[in-house]
Write a structure and sequence with these properties.
It is built from eight helices and 35 strands. The chain is an alpha+beta fold.
Length: 548
């Protein structure tokens, strides 16, 4: 999608050839117009009849099926797959062998031929008005051991969590979204990470968890001559990099927002062609102002950037894309890349329902690249769970792998020092001496409050305004986990810390206390309360050094 202008001459030539040599033909009663070279039929499995109004794309152009279920248009010469947007009234097609979503067909596109690809959809018994989203960031597997941990730790935890939630009536209609960086540049992990996502059973074996993937910077092959070629490994295994689907009153879209040149020389954002594709996709969504949008991709938007791969760049359609989002009632942007969580409200971009675009940057399922069981900031390896009712997010949590859903924070003593086998000592900044420090992993400044409760009396804690490092976790990384103090990846400072001076001056001496963190979900008003009444005083819960 990112480089079609060079091929305009080819398109014109192809249209001329087709108009000259293609024989007149019909599909299901529809005449194929001269010049169109990408055609097909979408039918209902229960009736055998064509389905009207289904959006179809080659990744560059959108069209819809006519009253006979036929689509036709001029395909882009760069077309690799042709695919449709699954309507809410129809089930997600799954590959019979892998049980991965199969809404596309690989297309060895010949501009001078008539390229036909047909699809069959199975109707739902009823439209899904409740959804559960398992949102996974950065598996980022570099070696076999990483894939094995994803397969034997992460996946079983998801299965157990889903099964328990379904049994209790909490989780319904479960789908997984993966936010890119499936691999860590190494080609030999592609098929292995795909295999780990195949045939993942849920509902005690009565169903499968479909993984909808997106592409990250490490999924772009670094030795290719351009961005388009660099995505081929992904496309061969998971289909288009930019696609959409509908479930209930939710429209889902993913896009490749990595503009890749060579390793470590990428920027983030979108091409003009991609923005036109997104506009065309949104134009086909009926009643947008009453629907929710879930946009999932790899690199954050947050406050944007002049250049680089940390945030979407201003000159690569940062503002244009966020403005397009506001056409919907409610918008949630799901993002990975950073390996630590952050919630970001875009107050300059207000949705039709009156709330800002809500960006959720997730902690990584691989944490700090599988070196331990936490992310770079100390947040546990894990994934997010969003529950959706109709057109709004009813609830969401960040779920640590192999941890209870209630595990949402650690509490530290700001006076404490930490050391270990390398005899290097680290501690909290002097200004936090004598303070309780609550590390609330997935907080934000607007929708959380944190209180110190002692003998029934609640005292508000204060969220830090200057980024702070988890010094217990940092000491563990350096002393026990083989990380270098010079590696800035482990210097991550974040704002998800809340502090309060201990009433007696020493948190270790306080009695009858607890820290209570209250999260009010802004879109639904649901209230979640989490409590901790013990201090994290050592490396308990952090594993021994793991192999590279």
């Amino acid at each position: 999608m990112k480089s079609t202008t060079l091929f305009s001459a080819v398109v014109c030539a192809a249209m001329f050839v087709l108009s000259s040599c293609c024989q007149e033909g019909r599909i299901n009663g529809t005449k194929i117009q001269e010049g169109n070279n990408l055609v097909g039929l979408i039918t209902d499995s229960s009736t055998g009849k064509g389905i009207a109004g289904v959006a179809v794309s080659d990744g560059y152009t959108f069209t819809t099926t006519d009253k006979n279920g036929v689509y036709q248009f001029v395909g882009n010469p760069l077309t690799r797959v042709v695919y449709y947007t699954t309507p809410s009234e129809y089930k997600i097609n799954l590959d019979e062998q892998t049980r991965l979503p199969l809404f596309y067909k690989a297309c060895k596109f010949d501009p001078e031929a008539l390229n036909r690809n047909d699809f069959t959809l199975t109707p739902m018994d009823r439209v899904e008005d409740e959804l559960t989203l398992i949102v996974i960031s950065d598996p980022q597997c570099k070696v076999d051991r990483h894939v094995e941990r994803f397969r034997t730790e992460s996946i079983p935890d998801m299965q157990e969590t889903i099964n328990e939630g379904v049994e209790n009536g909490i989780y319904k209609n479960v789908y997984a979204l993966v936010l890119g960086d499936l691999v860590y540049d190494y080609l030999d992990q592609w098929d292995k990470i795909k295999d780990a996502m195949c045939n993942v059973t849920i509902n005690d074996g009565d169903g499968y968890l479909p993984f909808f993937n997106s592409i990250g910077n490490h999924d772009h092959y670094e030795d290719c001559e351009n961005d388009y070629a660099g995505t081929q490994n992904y496309v061969d295994r998971f289909g288009p990099t930019d696609y959409s689907f509908d479930r209930g009153n939710v429209h889902f879209v993913t896009m490749d927002n990595v503009v890749y040149n060579k390793r470590n020389t990428y920027n983030s954002g979108f091409s003009a062609e991609q923005v036109e594709w997104l506009k065309a996709d949104f134009d086909l969504v009926k009643d947008k102002e009453n629907k929710m949008l879930v946009f999932y991709a790899h690199v954050p938007f947050r406050g944007g950037a002049e250049k680089g791969g940390g945030n979407v760049n201003y000159d690569k359609y940062y503002d244009d894309v966020l403005k397009l989002f506001t056409e919907f009632k409610e918008v949630h942007v799901m993002i990975g890349h950073t390996h630590h969580p952050e919630n970001y409200m875009h107050h300059n971009y207000i949705c039709k329902g009156g709330k800002p675009v809500y960006e959720h940057v997730l902690g990584a399922v691989s944490g700090a690249w599988w070196h331990t069981n936490t992310c770079t900031d100390g947040t546990p390896n894990g994934y997010a769970i969003f529950t959706v009712k109709d057109n709004t997010v009813d609830n969401f949590i960040y779920k640590g792998t192999d941890l209870d859903e209630s595990y949402q924070m650690r509490v530290y003593n700001g006076s404490q020092k930490y050391t270990g086998s390398k005899k290097l000592t680290f501690g909290w900044p002097e200004e936090y001496k004598g303070c309780f420090i609550a590390d609330v992993f997935n907080d934000d400044a607007e929708n959380w409050k944190v209180e110190f409760i002692q003998n029934g009396v609640a005292t508000p804690m204060t969220r830090v305004t200057k980024k702070l490092r988890d010094w217990c976790m940092f000491s563990y990384f350096i002393n026990e986990n083989g990380r270098s103090p010079k590696n800035t990846a482990y210097h991550t400072g974040k704002l998800h810390y809340w502090t309060l001076p201990a009433p007696c001056g020493d948190p270790a001496k306080e009695k009858n206390w607890e820290i209570r963190a209250t999260h009010t979900v802004p879109t639904s008003g649901r209230v979640n309360v989490y409590t901790v009444n013990t201090l994290q005083v050592d490396y308990t819960g952090f594993p021994a050094t793991l192999p590279e």
